[in-house]
C-alpha cells in the first residue's frame, strides 16, 4: 500500500506521461510498419532468387571484384568484365559434394548474346546449365510449353514473357522446335550458333531481369563465350584480326561451323570431354581445369546458416582460388539495392529514435524537477536510492509498455487499411521487390515482437539519466526547493 501511494505521489503529472506515450508510440509505429515492408521485401527477394536462380551459396573464382551470375557487381566494370572460368572444378566438386550441409549441387556457365527469331533481335542473358541437376535444384522454374532441357542435348528454353514479346513484335508465336540463332561478338570477331527451342517456361516469382534469361545447353554457350574445351577445332580467336576483316561472312560460317544448321560437333562429345578430363594430370592440387564452368551453385539443408557455411567453406577452398558468396551477391543489383534500402531505412529509424530519446529525457528531467518535493520527502522518511529508481523505472516502463502495444496495434490497423485499398505498383523494380503489382504488407509477428522490445528499450534508455539526477537530490534541499 505504501508503494502504490509513493508511486501515485511522484507520478501526478499526466501531461508529461502523455507526451512520452505519444513519442514512443509514434517511433514504434514507424519502426513496425517500415520493417514489415523492408523485411517482407527482403524475404520475397530471397525466395525469388534462391528458389529459381542462385540457390543458397554460389562458388566462383576468387578475384578483385565480386561477380553475380551474369557479370560484375560494379556497374562501371560490368560493361567490360568477363566472367572467369572456374578453377580446379573437379577437385572443388569433390570437396563440396562431401559436405553434409549440402542438399543439392549444380553447375552453370553464363554469358550474354543476341537472339534472332522471326526478324526480332533481342539481347539475352544465357544460363548454360547442367540439365541433370539444375532443374531439380530450382522448383521455381515452371514449364508452360514443351519440356525441360535434357542432359547433353543441344537446345534452349525461353521465358513466357519473351515469347509473348516476340509474338507481339513479329505476329508469330515461337513454337517448340523452331531454330533460334544466338550471336556473340568481340573486337576481333563473332560467333554464331543455332539451336532448337525445347521449352517455354516462367519463374514462379520473377525478378527484375529474370524474364531476360535464356536457359541453354552449356556446350553451345562455351562456343559462344570462346571458352577453351577439349577440342582441336579452330577457334575464331586464332584468326588474325586483319585476316578476319577480309574473309567473306559465308566463308567464316562455312569453315568454322561447317553448317549453320548443324549444332552437334565432335569436339563437344560428352565421351570425348570426359576422357580428356580423366587423362589430365592432377598432381598436387591438380591442374587448373575441369568442366569449363563459371559457377557451382549449392542448396543447403533446412536449418543450415548460409553465412556460417560460407565462412567454413571459404577456409577450405582458399588454396583452390575459389570464393563462396551468398545469394544476394550472386543475384546482383536488385538484391543489393534492397539491402541498401533496408540499411538506409534502419539508419533513419535509428536517428528518429535518438531524437525521441533526447526528447523523452528532457521531458523526464522536467518531470523530475517538478517533483523534487515528493522525491525529497520520500528520501527524508528513509526511502533508499534503489527504491526511488524503482519507482521512476516502473512509471516509465509502464508508459513504454502501453505505448509499444498501442504503436503495434495502430500499425496492424494501418496494414489492414493499406491492403484493403490495393494500391497498384507501376514500377517493375519495386513490383519485383514487393512480390507483385499490388502493394501489400504482410503482418510479421517477429517484427511486431522486435518493435515491442524496441519500445521498452527506448523507454528504459531514456529513463537512466533522469533517474540518476533524481537520486542525487539531497533530501532537505529537495524539500526546501519543492
Provide a descriptive summary of the structure in words:
This protein is an alpha+beta fold and 482 residues long. The chain is built from 18 helices and 14 strands. The chain folds into two domains: 2-46 and 336-481, no CATH class; 88-320, no CATH class. Helix content is 52%, strand content 18%. A six-stranded mixed barrel has the order 4-5-10-7-9-8. The chain starts with a helix and ends with a helix.
Overall pLDDT confidence? 77
List low-pLDDT spans: 1-12, 76-80, 229-247, 249-266, 273-289
Structural class: alpha+beta
Envelope shape: elongated
**Count, helices:** 18
How would you write the strand order of the largest sheet? 4-5-10-7-9-8
What is the terminal separation in angstroms? Answer: 24 Å
- Oligomer, anyone? single chain
Radius of gyration: 32 Å
Strand segment count: 14
Could you estimate the helical fraction of the residues in percent? 40-55%
Beta-strand residue fraction: 15-25%
Q: Main beta sheet: strand number and arrangement?
A: 6 strands, mixed, barrel
Please indicate the count of domains: 2
